[in-house]
UniProtKB/TrEMBL annotation, chain A:
Keywords: 4Fe-4S, Iron, Iron-sulfur, Metal-binding. GO terms for biological process: lactate metabolic process. PANTHER family: LACTATE UTILIZATION PROTEIN B. InterPro entries: 4Fe4S_Fe-S-bd (IPR017896), 4Fe4S_Fe_S_CS (IPR017900), FTHF_cligase-like_sf (IPR024185), LUD_dom (IPR003741), LutB/LldF (IPR004452), LutB_C (IPR024569), NagB/RpiA_transferase-like (IPR037171). Residues 456-479 are annotated as: Disordered. The keyword Acetylation does not apply. This is Iron-sulfur cluster-binding protein. It comes from Aliidongia dinghuensis. One of its GO terms (molecular function) is metal ion binding. The keyword Iron applies.
TrEMBL record, chain B:
InterPro entries: Cys_rich_dom. GO terms for cellular component: cytosol. It holds the Pfam family CCG. This is Fe-S oxidoreductase. One of its GO terms (molecular function) is oxidoreductase activity. Residues 8-88, 138-221 form the Cysteine-rich domain.
Length: 479, 264
C-alpha cells in the first residue's frame, strides 16, 4: 500500500472526528486487554515463557543465515521450493511466475501482512488474476478497497452496519431483502460466498507465523479455518513470509505459540494452528501438488546488528496495538502503512524510511504499556527513542520544535540563568493567573489550551522560597 | 530505621518548582517526618527528559552530568515524581554506556534515586501519616512511576491512613492520561482525546478529588477537568499525605482548598 505516514497529523485529525470509527474503537478498547489478562492469569509460567521466547528469537537472529539455510534445505527435502526476494518487486514477480506456471485465474489468500507490504492484490489484479481474501476481516476490507487497520483484526475500524453495506453492494446476485443486521447473518453470507471461491482457486496464498528450520514446515494460526481451505484445496500452496519468522525447532515454535494467542486475543490457543510441510505426498488424501515459500527481506536484514535488531523478535500478536492508548484514539489507518501502533512505529521507519514515517515514533507518550505487554519483551519505547535520535541528528524534526528545545536546553545547562528565568516566569505567570488559577488561553501554548486549561503557577518558585527560608534560618542562627 | 539520619537531596522537578511549590514543601515535610535531613541542591534545573525524549542526546548528557555532579554526594535522591526519578534511576546509566567512569557514577546515583512515596514506604518503612482530608479521592497511576519504578501500592497504603479520606479505585487507573511530556505539544489532538477519556473515567467514579504523583499528569488532567467545568479537586498526593492540602487551592483553581477541616 502507498504509505501516508508523512500525513499522520492530518490522518489523526480525520480519525478523531470520525464518529463511526470512534464507535468501533470503543468496542475494541475494553475487549482485548481484559481477555489477555484473564488468559495469562491462568498460566503461572507466562513470564518465564516470555524469557524463553526472547532467548529463542535472540539466538535465531544471531544465527539467522544458518537457520534460513537449514529451513531451505528441509523445505526442498520435503518436496517444496524456497524463493528469496530482496524487494517487494522481486516477491511479486516470483508470485506471478508461479501463478502463471499453473495458468491460474483465481487466487485465494489467507491473511498475510507480507502480501499487504508488497501490495500483492493490486499487482495480481493488474496482471488479470482474481485475488480473493478469505479471512473475514480481510474480505470485508477488500470489498471496501481498504487496507487493514490492525494486524490481527484487519477490519476492527468498522461497525457491522458498514459490513452490511459492503456485502449488499458486492453480493448483488443475492436477494436484496435478506436480513443482514446480525453478525451471524453476515458471517453466514461471507462463508457461502467464499466457499465457491475456495473451489475455484488454482493457487492458495497464506502468510506464516513461523518457519521451522529443522522440519522445513510453515505454521499458520487462525480462528476461521479459512487458512486451511486456502492451503489445502488449490493445486499450489504459496507461503509468503519475511525472513525473521524462522525458529530453529518444532519445540521452539510451540513454546512461542503458547505466548501468541494469549497475548493476541486472550485465547489459550487459536482455533486452528496448522503446520504445512511440503506438498501432498503419495497416499495423502488431500493437499497441494506444489509447495512454495517466498522469503521476503525488504529491509529486515539491514536491521540486524543495529539498535533495531530486537524488533525482529516480533511475533505479530498485536498486544502492543491492543493496549496502546494512542492507537485506540486514532485507529490503525492514521499510521499510514501496513503496521500500526507501537510495533509499527518502530518497524515502519525501518522498512520505508524515517523521512516518510518520522511522525510515528514521535507519536508516543512513552507510557510503556506496549513494552509491558509484549510477549517477546521488545523494548518498544527505547527503539522509538532511537528513531527520534536519528531524526534529531539529521535535522528532520520540525524547526520550531527544535528551536524551542534548543532554547530550553540552553537554560537547563546554565543553572544561574535558568534560576533567573524560572523565578521570573513563576512570578509573572502566577500574577497573571491569580484570579482564576488557570489560563484558558495563552500565547504560544495554543496546542495545550486548545483542549484544556493551563494551571497557573502558584507564584514564587519553590527554589526562590526555599532559598529565602534557608537564609532566614541562617540569619537566626547567626543572631 | 537507621541510627543516624540519612542526608536526602530533594530533586524538586521543574514543574513543581515552577507551578506548584507546595508539592516541594510537602515533600520536605514528609521526608523530615520520615527521619531524614533534607537538602535542596541549588544548581538543579531539570532531569533532562524533554531533550532525551526528543532525541537530543548531547544536551541530555550535558544535563545528566550536571545532575550527577550536584546530587551524587547524598545518601539518597528523592523526587516527588515517578517520571523524573525514573529518568535518573533507569535512563542515566544508559546514556553513558560508552564512558565507563561516567556510567559507574550514573549507576551509583540511579540506584539511590527514588520516587517520594515509594521512598517513604519501601526505604523508610513508613506505614501511616498524620493527616486529615475530608473527601472521596480517586488515584491515577502515572506511567513512569508505575512501570519504571513499581509505584502502585505505596501511595494507596499511606492514603489509607489519612483520616476522613476514602479511596475509590479509578477504572483504567494505569492507562496513560495523554500528557507524555513533549507529546502533548507535538500531538495536541491525540493528547486532548486521551485526557478526555481519562477525565470521563474520573468523573464517573463520583470522587471529589483526583490524586496522582506527577505534576505533568496532574496539570493535564486538572486542565481538562477545569475546561469541562468539573468541580473535582486535583492534587499531588504529597499535599494530602503531608496534611498540607489546606495550604493552597487545588491545581488549576483559585477556590479555597477542599477537604480541609479546621481542627484548631
Amino acid at each position: 500500500m502507498q504509505p501516508t505516514s508523512h500525513a499522520f497529523k492530518a490522518n489523526v485529525r480525520e480519525a478523531l472526528v470520525d464518529t463511526t470509527l470512534q464507535r468501533a474503537l470503543d468496542n475494541m478498547r475494553t475487549g482485548f486487554p481484559a481477555k489477555r489478562l484473564l488468559a495469562i492469569s491462568r498460566l503461572p509460567e507466562f513470564d518465564a515463557l516470555r524469557d524463553q521466547g526472547r532467548a529463542i528469537k535472540n539466538h535465531t537472529l544471531e544465527n539467522l543465515d544458518f537457520y534460513l539455510e537449514t529451513f531451505e534445505r528441509n523445505v526442498s527435502r520435503a518436496g517444496g521450493h524456497v524463493h528469496w526476494a530482496r524487494t517487494p518487486e522481486e516477491a511479486r514477480q516470483i508470485v506471478l511466475d508461479i501463478c502463471r506456471s499453473v495458468d491460474a485465474k483465481t487466487v485465494t489468500k489467507g491473511k498475510s501482512m507480507i502480501s499487504e507490504e508488497i501490495e500483492l492484490n493490486e499487482f495480481l489484479e493488474h496482471q488479470g488474476l482474481v485475488p480473493v481474501e478469505t479471512d473475514l476481516g480481510e474480505y470485508i476490507i477488500q470489498l471496501r478497497h481498504e487496507a487493514p487497520s490492525h494486524i490481527i483484526a484487519p477490519a476492527i475500524h468498522l461497525v457491522k452496519e458498514q459490513v452490511e453495506e459492503a456485502f449488499r453492494a458486492s453480493h448483488t446476485d443475492l436477494p436484496p431483502d435478506r436480513p443482514l443486521s446480525e453478525p451471524r447473518e453476515l458471517t453466514d453470507e461471507a462463508r457461502a460466498v467464499l466457499r465457491r471461491r475456495f473451489h475455484e482457486a488454482d493457487v492458495g496464498i497464506t502468510g506464516a507465523n513461523f518457519l521451522i528450520a529443522e522440519t522445513g514446515s510453515t505454521v499458520i494460526v487462525t480462528n476461521e479455518g479459512n487458512g486451511d481451505l486456502t492451503q489445502t484445496l488449490p493445486k499450489v500452496h504459496l507461503v509468503l513470509a519475511s525472513l525473521e519468522k524462522v525458529v530453529p525447532t518444532l519445540e521452539d515454535a510451540t513454546t512461542i505459540l503458547r505466548l501468541l494467542a494469549r497475548s493476541a486475543t486472550g485465547q489459550e490457543f487459536s482455533s486452528y494452528t496448522t503446520f504445512s510441510t511440503g506438498p501432498r505426498r503419495p497416499g495423502d488424501l488431500d493437499g497441494p501438488e506444489q509447495f512454495h515459500v517466498v522469503l521476503l527481506d525488504n529491509g529486515r536484514s539491514g536491521m540486524l546488528g543495529t539498535e533495531f535488531q530486537d524488533m525482529l523478535r516480533c511475533i505479530r500478536c498485536s498486544a502492543c496495538i491492543n493496549h496502546c492508548p494512542v492507537y485506540s484514539s486514532v485507529g490503525g489507518h492514521a499510521y499510514g502503512w501496513v503496521y500500526p501502533g507501537p510495533m509499527g512505529s518502530v518497524l515502519t521507519p525501518s522498512l520505508i524510511g524515517v523521512e516518510e514515517a518520522g511522525n510515528l515514533p514521535n507519536a508516543s507518550t512513552f507510557c510503556g504499556k506496549c513494552e509491558s505487554v509484549c510477549p517477546m519483551r521488545i523494548p518498544l519505547p527505547k527503539m522509538m527513542r532511537h528513531w527520534r535520535e536519528r531524526e534529531f541528528e539529521r535535522n528532520l524534526s520540525p524547526a520550531p520544535f527544535r528551536w524551542g528545545l534548543k532554547l530550553w536546553a540552553y537554560f537547563a545547562k546554565r543553572p544561574k540563568l535558568y534560576r533567573l528565568g524560572a523565578n521570573l516566569a513563576a512570578r509573572t505567570l502566577g500574577r497573571m493567573g491569580r484570579d482564576s488559577g488557570r489560563f484558558s488561553r495563552l500565547p504560544l501554548a495554543g496546542g495545550w489550551t486548545g483542549g484544556r486549561d493551563l494551571p497557573a503557577p502558584q507564584g514564587k518558585s519553590f527554589m526562590e522560597q526555599w532559598q529565602a527560608r534557608t537564609e532566614q534560618a541562617r540569619r537566626r542562627e547567626a543572631a | 530505621m537507621a541510627p543516624s539520619k540519612p542526608r536526602v537531596a530533594l530533586f524538586v522537578t521543574c514543574l513543581v518548582d515552577l507551578f506548584r511549590p507546595t508539592v516541594g514543601f510537602a515533600a520536605v515535610k514528609l521526608l523530615e517526618d520520615a527521619g531524614c535531613i533534607v537538602e535542596v541542591p541549588p544548581t538543579q534545573t531539570c532531569c533532562g527528559q524533554p531533550a532525551y525524549n526528543s532525541g537530543d542526546r548531547a544536551d541530555t548528557k550535558a544535563i545528566a552530568r550536571a545532575v550527577i555532579d550536584a546530587f551524587e554526594d547524598y545518601d539518597y535522591v528523592v523526587a516527588p515524581s515517578g517520571s523524573c526519578a525514573g529518568m535518573i534511576h533507569e535512563h542515566y546509566a544508559r546514556l553513558f554506556e560508552d564512558e565507563p567512569a561516567m556510567f559507574q557514577r550514573a549507576q551509583h546515583l540511579g540506584n539511590r534515586t527514588h520516587e517520594l512515596v515509594s521512598f517513604l514506604v519501601d526505604v523508610r518503612g513508613m506505614t501511616a501519616v498524620h493527616a486529615h482530608y475530608d473527601g472521596v479521592a480517586t488515584y491515577h497511576d502515572s506511567c513512569s512511576g508505575l512501570r519504571e519504578l513499581g509505584v502502585k501500592q505505596q501511595p494507596r497504603a499511606l492514603l489509607k491512613s489519612v483520616e476522613g479520606l476514602s479511596l475509590k479505585e479509578l477504572p483504567g487507573a494505569e492507562i496513560c492520561c495523554g500528557f507524555g511530556g513533549t507529546f502533548c505539544i507535538k500531538y495536541p489532538d491525540i493528547s486532548n482525546r486521551m485526557v478526555g477519556d481519562k477525565t470521563a473515567d474520573v468523573v464517573a467514579t463520583g470522587a471529589d478529588t483526583l490524586l496522582a504523583g506527577d505534576m505533568g499528569c496532574l496539570m493535564n488532567m486538572a486542565g481538562k477537568l477545569s475546561r469541562d467545568g468539573q468541580p473535582i479537586a486535583v492534587r499531588h498526593v504529597a499535599e494530602v499525605l503531608a496534611d498540607m492540602a489546606h495550604d493552597a487551592p487545588p491545581i488549576a483553581s483559585n477556590q479555597p482548598a477542599s477537604g480541609h477541616q479546621d481542627r484548631h
